[in-house]
C-alpha cells in the first residue's frame, strides 16, 4: 500500500488563521505536524487523498478521499481536539447516520480527533435553498437529532460566553453593554430553570446541513451538548441574520421567525427567545475575539431586536 506523502497535503490558509486566532498556544505545533499526521492516517485507514477542501472546517482539515480496496468515496476530518470538538464522534455514534453524516471510523489522541465520514455533497448546503424551504427542512432534521442522552455520557452543558467567569472580557461597544448584561442574566436564569436535557447538535444551522445520497439532507459538524431543545433551536433562529437585519421591520421579523420555529418544534417561545438573545451575543463576542467586527455588529443588532 503506497504511503501518502506530506508534500501533497496543504493546510488551507483560512484554517491556519482561524486556529492561530482562537487557539494560539496549540496552533504552531499542531499545524506544523498536521500534514504528516494526515499522511499517517491515510496509510492507517488505507485511503488515497483526492483533495483537501479549502477552507474546510474552522478547527479541522477536511479532505475528500477514497478507499484503496473498493474505491468507495469518503471524507477525512482531522480536528484540533477542543471542548467543542471532543464529543463529535460520540454524537455521531449515537445518531448512527439517522439525520447526520455516518461515522465510519474514529481515532482520538489528546490533541487530535480523526474522523472518517461518508462522503456528502459539500458544494450543496441547505443554505442553497430559499429560506422558507430551508427552514422547513432544517426543523424536520433537527427534531430527529434530539435524542435521549446516552447512558453514562460526559457531554458538557451550554457554557455561554456571557456567563460569570466564562473567560476574559472583550472590548465591546459601549451601547452593547446592556445587552451583555441581559444575556448573562438570561443565561443564568434559563440554565437554573431548565426541565429537560437532550443530546443537542450544538451548532445547527443551514451551513452545517449538506445534501446526501441516502437522504435528502444530513447534519454535519456537531459540537454536542446536553441541554434543552430551545438552546439548539436558538442557533437556527439566528441563521441568515444578515437577511433579517437588512429587512424593514426587524423586531417584527424576528418575533415572527421565533414564533414559527417554536410552534414547528413545540418549544417554549419565551425560552427560545431567551436563548436566542444569549446565542446572538455569544456569536458577537466570538466574532470580536477573531477581529470580525462587522459580523459582531450584525449579531448585536439582531440581539437588540429581541
TrEMBL record:
Superkingdom to which the source organism belongs: Bacteria
Family matches, as Pfam families: APH_6_hur
InterPro entries, sorted: Kinase-like_dom_sf, NH2Glyco/OHUrea_AB-resist_kin
Annotated stretches, region: Disordered: 153-172
Protein's UniProt name: Aminoglycoside phosphotransferase family protein
Amino acid at each position: 500500500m503506497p504511503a501518502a506523502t506530506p508534500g501533497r497535503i496543504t493546510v488551507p490558509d483560512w484554517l491556519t488563521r482561524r486556529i492561530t486566532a482562537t487557539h494560539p498556544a496549540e496552533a504552531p505545533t499542531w499545524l506544523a505536524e498536521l500534514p504528516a499526521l494526515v499522511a499517517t492516517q491515510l496509510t492507517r485507514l488505507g485511503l488515497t487523498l483526492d483533495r483537501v477542501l479549502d477552507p474546510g472546517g474552522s478547527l479541522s482539515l477536511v479532505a475528500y478521499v477514497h478507499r484503496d480496496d473498493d474505491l468507495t468515496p469518503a471524507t477525512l476530518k482531522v480536528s484540533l481536539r477542543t471542548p467543542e470538538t471532543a464529543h463529535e464522534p460520540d454524537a455521531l455514534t449515537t445518531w448512527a447516520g439517522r439525520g447526520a453524516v455516518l461515522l465510519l471510523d474514529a481515532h482520538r489522541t489528546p490533541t487530535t480527533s480523526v474522523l472518517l465520514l461518508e462522503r456528502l455533497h459539500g458544494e450543496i448546503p441547505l443554505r442553497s435553498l430559499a429560506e422558507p424551504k430551508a427552514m422547513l427542512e432544517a426543523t424536520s432534521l433537527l427534531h430527529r437529532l434530539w435524542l435521549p442522552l446516552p447512558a453514562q455520557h460526559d457531554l458538557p452543558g451550554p457554557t455561554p460566553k456571557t456567563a460569570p467567569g466564562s473567560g476574559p472580557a472583550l472590548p465591546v461597544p459601549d451601547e452593547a453593554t446592556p445587552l451583555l448584561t441581559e444575556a448573562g442574566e438570561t443565561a443564568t436564569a434559563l440554565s437554573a430553570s431548565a426541565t429537560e436535557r437532550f443530546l443537542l447538535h450544538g451548532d445547527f444551522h443551514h451551513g452545517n446541513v449538506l445534501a446526501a445520497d441516502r437522504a435528502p439532507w444530513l447534519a454535519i459538524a456537531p459540537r454536542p451538548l446536553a441541554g434543552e431543545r430551545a438552546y439548539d433551536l436558538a442557533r437556527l433562529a439566528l441563521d441568515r441574520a444578515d437577511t433579517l437585519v437588512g429587512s424593514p421591520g426587524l423586531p417584527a421579523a424576528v418575533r415572527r421567525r421565533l414564533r414559527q420555529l417554536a410552534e414547528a418544534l413545540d418549544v417554549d417561545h419565551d425560552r427560545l427567545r431567551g436563548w436566542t438573545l444569549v446565542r446572538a451575543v455569544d456569536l458577537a463576542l466570538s466574532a470580536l475575539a477573531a477581529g470580525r467586527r462587522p459580523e459582531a455588529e450584525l449579531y448585536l443588532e439582531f440581539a437588540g431586536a429581541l
